[in-house]
Amino acid sequence: MSLFDLAGPDQIETIPFPTDKDGLIRFIRRRQPLLLSGVREALPFTEGWNYSYFKSSLKSIRIQRQSEDGIYHYLGFERISMEDFDEVMNTTGNGYALEPLRGQGVSDDLPAGLSVTLPSFIPESAFRVSNLYIGPGKNKSLLHYDETHSLLMMLEGRKRFILFPPDQSDCMYPYSPFSIRALLENRVVDSKIDCQNPDVKRFPKLGQAHGITGWLEEGQALFIPAGTWHFIEAEGRNVSVNYFWLQNSVRDWLHQPLLDFWLKRRAIDVLDKLRKIKHKLSAA
Prior knowledge:
Blueprint: E1 13-16, H1 25-30, E2 34-37, H2 39-42, H3 51-57, E3 60-64, E4 78-81, H4 82-90, E5 96-103, E6 127-135, E7 149-164, H5 169-172, H6 180-184, E8 212-216, E9 220-224, E10 229-245, H7 250-253, H8 258-283
Parallel strand pairs: 1-2
Antiparallel strand pairs: 2-9, 3-4, 3-5, 5-6, 6-10, 7-8, 7-9, 7-10
């Protein structure tokens, strides 16, 4: 069984890339995923952005290695030269790049001329980060959700996705907000389900889930509303850039899975305070 076997009859809607500030607002309010066409026309700075461009423009890049289950868990990163990364891409393929381009965590190595413009529908005050992702192929995510809205733009290659709405959170088997291990491992937005071998006997409610599946093609963008569970797998070498922005209503935070996220973050804050107290006591 594959997660993609859980696709329901609904098809994802495709619209032209919005160019006005209210272009996504009705979909955000409904928390409706979308495919947007015409990325390069709407955002001209992406013209020519592909693997060859970044290979020649970047001095170094931040990567993570595959875990034993073949998944990139976004836990440990290392910075290597672009030359070394190119060798990884052409040999073992054991490396997935995640490089912040704007917002939190931007490296001093990033060329000054490499700039990212926000789409008109993302408020500057709500914006968090824009990341560059480069993968060798077959790179895949965990089944998870984000507390922010996400816009994933495909600049080279293609990715297959399946999305599950927030009201199916009970079928996704998220980690408990009271699981110390999950909190310490920062698994607050992840599902317990093995995406490669979903076990319906162990997780029976998973069989009741109905997702929306499709392909994100070059020149398209995928809008994933906050709290939407998603699993994404790339086919062949791939380059994408995304935006994360926080634009949730109070009502959104009062429903799952965002309510759980809020509880988990508060629990992590408590653990961090306890660590600091322990450190001070041991240093005294």
